[in-house]
Amino acid sequence: MIQAPRGTKDVLPQESAAWQRMEAVMRDVCRLAGYREVRTPVIEHTELFQRGVGDTTDVVQKEMYTFEDKGGRSITLKPEGTAGTARLFIEHGLFNEPLPLKAYYLYCPVFRYEAPQSGRLREHHQFGVEVFGAKEPTIDVEVIRLAMDVIERLGGKNLRLFINSIGCPTCRARYTDALRDFLRPKLTKLCPTCQGRFEKNPMRILDCKDPGCKAEIVGAPSILEYLCNDCAAHFARVKELLTVAGVPYEVDPGIVRGLDYYTKTVFEIMYPLENGQLFTACGGGRYDGLVESVGGPSVPGIGFGMGMERLLMALSSSGAAETESSPLRVYVASMGQAALDEAFRLTRLMRLSGIPCDMDHAGRSLKAQFKYAGKLGPEYVVVIGEDELKENKYRLRDMRSREETLLSQEELLCRLSGAEK
Hints:
Elements: H1 16-32, E1 36-37, E2 43-45, H2 46-54, H3 58-63, E3 65-68, E4 74-77, H4 82-91, E5 101-111, E6 123-132, H5 137-153, E7 160-165, H6 169-183, H7 192-200, H8 211-216, H9 229-244, E8 250-251, E9 263-272, E10 278-286, H10 290-293, E11 301-307, H11 308-317, E12 330-334, H12 337-352, E13 357-359, H13 366-376, E14 380-384, H14 386-391, E15 394-398, E16 404-407, H15 409-420
């Protein structure tokens, strides 16, 4: 049998209404806050992710789909959206435009080779927001609030926000020394991957999912104890602004995120499922050094990524996802060749008038057409037969009340256009 590759998922016609509603909400929330859409290629040069995401991360070491093209260049299917957006920002000189640049992307395909499981796919799609050129803590809170607005407008309730600061390169250097001192006696008990991270980037060890490593990092020093004055003041202001915005939060020193470009504020938004488990709906934070690390000027940045399949799954589990509705307002049923021709003409006319409609394209009998229309679920069926053709009228049946009315073309279009409104 022909099957979709493992770790990928089709979107079926009956599922598309939920996707369309989700995308519409995301676009509207971004529009209200002055964010504009960007779209980047599915493929990028591998070096972009090695330099931007970090060559010690699981994403780069284990999860990227990388191949050599016919020109001998190393190409990677993008594993996340931020690095590509930073590349776009640099390549097109957008740093010369008025800043901050506030951008978003949605239905952005990302690829990670990991064990497929519920809500985690090898190809999935992200909604993300990226802001370049804003250093004030106000943008941190705006970005967090925007992500929460999207989830709440889609029906998500009782969201929990977890925040942390992972500092800047200056204070993080002091912290990594303290972390190495803590981990050095435990080094042989860590997994091989974390042993390799010990010298290059020990903070990645805090993000390891291996149960043995999780046990060994209990009691590790907190980054919050090593923040420099600037980072500490920034984090304090973020917390203050969250309170001003009426957003409850919990400080979690264990949040370091999985990508190397993060600095200062990092956050995760959790969504409680019906079974009581917490689902990570969104993660993000600051990346003040990313643009410079991939060849651009020194420009601060902040953003988040939200897995769209995972969010839809969580919303569906709590009954908040959009249910399928009929794409049609009207179905046109006909009897005989002349009536079929008129149905074809009328269908086109109604579509030009903005009325969603369809007709029989399978040569069904009138009875079969009504049965088919019943499955589609339109509000109205227009019937055209010999009598209707002679009178130059159309029989309109209300599928809810079963009432029928004989109408002229002008009356029909007027009524259906009114129903459309």
